[in-house]
Amino acid sequence: MWGAADRVAHVPPGPLRVRCPVALNPSTMWRMSEMTVTELVHAAAAGDSGAWNALVTRFSGLVWSVARQHRLSDADAGDVCQATWLRLVENLGALREPEAIGGWLATTVRRESLRVIKHSGRQIPTDIESQIDVCDDTATTDPDRYLIAAERQAAMRTAFASLGEACRTLLTLLNSDPPVSYAEISATLDMPVGSIGPTRARCLDRLRKSPALAGITA
Amino acid sequence: MDQPSEQDVQLLSELSAALQGYDAAPESVTDAAKAAFAWRTIDAELAALSYDSFLDDKELAGVRSGGEGARMLTFESADLTVEIEVEQGRVLGQLVPAQAGEVQVRHSGGSVTVQADERGRFSCDGVPRGPFSLRCVTSTATPIVTDWIVL
């Protein structure tokens, strides 16, 4: 409609490539999301692979983020995450506090990450804490708060992905760092400068009203 | 050019954070995690890691940087302890108390089963780096699985 397709090359890389969530069919997803973490742990301990998959889906980002906070390579982070999940498989029935599984996972992946750091011979400062990205330690210090924020962000990405290409392109340009001028946006999207404001408001309204964000506190 | 409303500014900045701030796990990592369920063992006791030379500071002081050299690990359960030495993919192991048994070496590439002789000794070559665990079966003790670690 805007003839923007051939000009999307101007758009900075990254945010446009949002993948829509797939895999489970909607009715299964809803059933799983209604189960509490404790119920999922018990079900998985009893052999329910669907419950296991739901646990992985819910906590995979947390586990990965903690590993990456230790500045591990992709390969090492992958190994550490996998070892953590494998440990959980064997410990499912033995967890003293299933509802605190987020903390258990964070502690386990953190320990294994530190082991890998030592193995690699990297310089270990007396205070290992300083190795960790101080800016965001939420994943390990407050896994529940981290999870809530992460779920909100995931819902935001889903909502964004459900917008049409035109809105996604515009919002991405408006998000650019360093900022892109309205004149540039106008040229890139082949739309009058005066239309940008109202179109932005319309797109944000669509985003706000997206079903993916329903029930997520702003 | 109209200015965005406050709610719009807020929403835009939340969107920005969502698109850029979160380090989502790669699909391959999540898929592998789901597949980990297949490693679940039933009726085996967990043997926890009780010693790792890589975390022994006295050991580290003498080891050249880069981390190469043998790594000693001990896994303990109520009835059976496994001591292993790992170096460049070769695992040398000892069951304690010494006795014959079957040892399944589990790693990211699959698993291989070796025999422990009557003195409890076993060995295995070609073990890749990455997640690693042993499952030991003897005639006297309950089967054990060792805590997964990263080699």
Explained architecture:
The complex is a heterodimer of chains A (218) and B (151). Chain A folds into two domains: 1-20 and 162-218, Arc Repressor Mutant, subunit A (Orthogonal Bundle); 22-138, Rna Polymerase Sigma Factor, Chain: A (Orthogonal Bundle), CATH 1.10.1740. Chain A contains ten helices and no strands. Chain A has helices at residues 26-34, 37-45, 49-69, 74-91, 101-119, 138-141, 143-161, 165-174, 182-189, 193-208. Chain A is elongated and about 60 Å long. In chain B, strands 1, 2, 3, 4, 5, 6, 7, 8, 9 and 10 form a ten-stranded mixed beta sheet that branches. Chain B has one domain (42-150): Immunoglobulin-like. Chain B is α+β, with helices and mostly antiparallel strands. Chain B has helices at residues 6-20, 27-35, 57-62, and strands at residues 45-52, 71-76, 81-87, 90-96, 101-107, 110-116, 121-124, 131-137, 144-146, 149-150. The interface between A and B is large, with 64 and 53 residues.
Structural class of chain A: mainly alpha
The H-and-E topology of chain B, N to C, reads as HHEHEEEEEEEEE
**Helix proportion range of chain B:** 10-25%
Termini separation of chain A (Å)?
32 Å
Q: Terminal Cα separation of chain B, in Å?
A: 60 Å
Q: Fill in the CATH topology of chain B.
A: Immunoglobulin-like
- What would you give as the CATH superfamily of the largest domain in chain A? RNA polymerase sigma factor, region 2, helix turn helix motif
Q: So, CATH architecture of chain B?
A: Sandwich
Radius of gyration of chain A: 21 Å
* Count of separate structural domains of chain B: 1
Flag low-confidence runs of chain A: 1-32, 125-135
**How many strand elements of chain B?**
10
Number of helices of chain B: 3
At the first level of CATH, the class of chain B is: Mainly Beta
The overall pLDDT average of chain A reads: 75
Write down the Rg of chain B: 23 Å
The major beta sheet of chain A can be summarized as: none
> From the structure provided, what is the oligomeric state, counting identical versus distinct chains?
heterodimer
DSSP strand tally of chain A: 0
Number of domains of chain A: 2
Contiguous helical run count of chain A = 10
